[in-house]
Amino acid sequence: MAEKLQRYGVYAAVAALLLFNAIFTDNFLQVANLRTQLVQMAPVVLVALGMALVIGTEGIDLSVGSVMALAAAVVPLYLGFGVWPAVAMALAAGATIGLVNGSMVALVGLQPIVATLALLVAGRGIALVVADGRLKQIKNQELLALGQPAVVIATAAVIAVVVAVMLHRTTYGRQLVAVGGNRAAANLAGLPVRRILIVTYVSCGLLAALAGVLATARLTASDPSSIGTLMELSAITAVVVGGTPLTGGQVRVLGTVAGALLMQLLRATLIKHNLPDSTAQMVQAAIILVAVYIARGRTR
Amino acid sequence: MDSVPLLSVRGVCKRFPGVLALQDVSLDLPAGQVHALVGENGAGKSTLIKVLTGVHRADEGEIAYDGRPVDFHQPKQAQQAGISTIYQEVNLIPLMSVARNLFLGREPRRFGLIDLPRMNREASETLARYGVHVDVRKPLRSLGLGAQQMVALARAVAIDAKLLIMDEPTSSLEPREVETLFGVVRELSQRHISILYVSHRLDELYRLCDEVTVLRDGRVVHTGPLAAIDKLTLISKMLGRDLGGDGVTKFTHDRRAALPGPPQLRAEGMDKRNLLHDISFEVRRGEVVGLGGLLGSGRSETAKAIVGALPVDRGSVWVGGRRLARLSTAAAIKAGMAMLPEDRKAEGIIADLSVRENIVLAAMPSLHRAGLVSRRRQDQIVDVFMKRLRIKASSPQQRVGELSGGNQQKVLLARWLCLNPRVLLLDEPTRGIDVGAKAEVQALIDELARAGLAVVLISSDLEELVEGADRVVLLKAGAVVGELAGDQVDEHAVMGMLAHG
């Protein structure tokens, strides 16, 4: 029962919220509104997907918000070479942070929460240094095109499918779950545990950087001091609410997407009914508690 | 005093979705009796224990305890009534000190604070009576499993138990510790504490227990004095089929002849500070070499070192005449070695994954097409091995964590056998699995050796070791102290060498 609730509860909650809004919220089902909701949640989805992979290995990545900031800071520096080199450099920056995270976890043996906390602090610092601490307007039309709703939503959707396929159909994906489920057993079975861990943190860094680029394009400005703040919490929330246990060994991709959608709908609903943001935060907290409680009940 | 038993179970039934786990089970346990509870895994022993300790509630039937009908809703109620349980896996807190574990929840206090000096002093004294001499301020996990078990026992006794349920208490103990445990059990029995003793080790039961109850498929199939039933009959009652033959293990008794040629596995000069000292031995094709020794003698460490799971300071490994360039689990697997680890839960199965995924775990890198997992090829392999090893699971999709110990062990064997290994290292392959699965695993080891594999067998079950192995290499304190081959291999020779070697 608890297992079913953990697994499918998020979909039921999303359905309930949609139904509520369809009846009680004016103009909710209009395409423009739905599109707005999806665009707003897309960066969270991207970051949460990476986070879900890391959590699947029994880890956690607190540095994702700072990676978004770093990506945002790097993009304008290389726009002179064209939009794709700039995006590539931003992604490379994210991958580098992921590499550092992964190495500290897999090679040095630091606890993920400590290792990535270091990068949470350092990452944004580096971003501010790179950007000289200033907000930069983006005028490059090609980059701004990446911020169009259709592009942002499609990217998140495609990435979700890619992550799902990678997780369920590739050797790497199955090994990732095995490492998270029982590291000692995976090691004895000859799995390349260190490489799997490093690749996972790099993937997470890449996805966070991609989210940073898209968010920058949508914002039409590079703002490393504010972009991605508290993103790690939103991402972890989406993952946990989506039914992925923090104890590793299981990853729910669709659940994670639904988790992000649930949190997004919740905030939108409360705002549309003129409840203050503080109320929204408390409701979110309640949902997280419920999700964690259900997960706890299942760990015999 | 025998007129009213301490515990009286009448017609207890317990249903789980789809399964009738206990069916009309009755059992009497007078004060001071040591009562053996036996049965294959899945026979309902664990369920019965859980009903008695308040983890589950019986659907039907009555339980009378200490002269009154009881209905425990929670483990705490059973504990307060004086029912203590010692589980197979030690149920204590690894990171807390030994003394704190012993006194958890009933610490001696002084001015409202825990009186640490007194607690530590009393803990040392208590444990010394159980033959455990350790620094009680150290975390529990720094102790060996045997010593941890003693702490669990001391704790259970200390909380004024009237009924002690022991579930496989000796499975991780050394012979010396087993003796201490037996001494304690007998002493408790004289103090009119009743003991329900669950074990797969029949020898122990005969030495210790007064009565026996045999469960099979959730029913009581036999109950009576242990002295009135011989070992073979007891086993046949547990299995529900008549056994022939003389031995209890399923190994064939004619020794296998090792195949000619160079040794398939050669370990030389394996050295690891404080653990292994210059260990060398070799195994030929078609040969089963037993690694004997007491707990802590370095048997498991030797196996782990050979497959690269334990880094060594010095030493080299040859497989099929070729020296491994470096010792790592990946290199060992590539060279054709496979190891079944001792601790199935912690190092073997991945409980949340399916039977299928657990089986193909090690073989996965070779089962893909263009980087994508090939479900079809996996299914073929999984199907073959589930049939060949007779793995009982509702489907390949079932979570491994839900299977019985014996079936989990078979899944692990399948994981290695599907790699087609040349060398198989088995660390306690039959520990904690039911008699039926045990016989099947033993027969399989036999079959594999006959097919030309080189097998290293580690077992603290002496009978299994001497009947299963063609040659036994004996270890003591991390060093080889002797070797027995051919007709020399028997229990007396092994014990003699361990005592004097």
Query: Uncertain spans of chain A, ≥5 residues at pLDDT below 50?
Result: none
Mean pLDDT of chain A: 91
CATH superfamily of the largest domain in chain B: P-loop containing nucleotide triphosphate hydrolases
Q: How much strand of chain A?
A: under 5%
The oligomeric state of the chains shown is: heterodimer
Overall pLDDT of chain B: 85
Distance from N terminus to C terminus of chain A (CA atoms, Å) equals: 13 Å
CATH class of chain A: Mainly Alpha
Largest interface: A-B, 22 and 28 residues
Show unreliable segments of chain B: 242-247
- Number of H- or I-type helical stretches of chain A: 13
> Which architecture name of chain A does CATH use?
Orthogonal Bundle
Strands of chain B, total number: 24
User: Treating each run of at least 4 consecutive H or I residues as one helix, how many helices of chain B?
Assistant: 17
Walk me through what this model shows:
The complex is a heterodimer of chains A (300) and B (501). Chain A has 300 residues and is mainly α. Chain A has a single domain (2-298), classed as ABC transporter involved in vitamin B12 uptake, BtuC (Orthogonal Bundle), CATH 1.10.3470. In chain A, 77% of the residues lie in helices and 1% in strands. In chain A, strands 1-2 form a two-stranded antiparallel sheet. The longest helix of chain A is centred in the C-terminal third of the chain and has 27 residues, at 193-219. The mean pLDDT of chain A is 91. With 501 residues, chain B is α/β, with parallel strands linked by helices. Chain B folds into three domains: 7-239, 3-Layer(aba) Sandwich (Rossmann fold), CATH 3.40.50.300; 260-336 and 422-501, Rossmann fold; 348-420, no CATH class. Chain B is globular, with a radius of gyration of 24 Å. Mean pLDDT of chain B is 85; it is low at 242-247.
